[in-house]
Amino acid sequence: MGLTLVYLSLFKLGSGSGVLTPDATNGAVVLHAYVQNTFGGLGSFFLAALIFIACMVTAVGLTCACAEFFEQYLPFSYKTLVFILGLFSMVVSNLGLSHLIQISIPVLTAIYPPCIVLVLLSFTLRWWNSASRIVAPVMLVSLLFGIL
Questions:
Q1: Calpha distance 42→7 (Å, rounded)
Q2: Are residue 41 and residue 1 in the same domain, yes or no?
Q3: How far is CA 88 from CA 57, 80, 109, in A?
Q4: pLDDT tens, 48-72?
């Protein structure tokens, strides 16, 4: 419920603040301009602190989860994987938001259809005698649709 309110607020903010930044390249620019206009410098400080905390919580959780997962499949220790993932994250973070979005959109567009199909098929796996004979071709077709 709380996240729904956050997203609805961001939708409202984005729809009504186009006059503040008509040449904005991404949503972060619009959000900063709105907060700066409404709350001043102190508001920008609180926005930066809030974004920092949200990003740190996400980064720590994702790094720990990925290291824990890959520890099972790669010949590296948990600490080594955390270090590697942290280093990789630092390199990626220097790309900038606009460039990162530009890179990630084609990747996400390609993998969304297979992910959606996989979730939907997971509800029907018990209906098939040989689930792999159903899942593999359907996943391949959905990947082709995602790529094209």
A1: 23
A2: yes
A3: 17, 12, 23
A4: 999 899 889 999 999 999 999 999 9
User: How far from chain centre, in Å, is Cα 4?
Assistant: 16
How many Å apart are CA 86 and CA 3, to the nearest integer?
A: 27
Residues 70 and 102 in one domain: no
Q: Which residue type, as a one-letter code, is found at position 109?
A: T
87-98 mean pLDDT: 89
**Do 83 and 26 belong to one domain?**
yes
Domain shared by 82 and 46, yes or no: yes
- Supply the range of the domain harboring residue 116: 97-148
| DSSP calls for 28-55 | HHHHHHHHHHHHHHHHHHHHHHHHHHHH
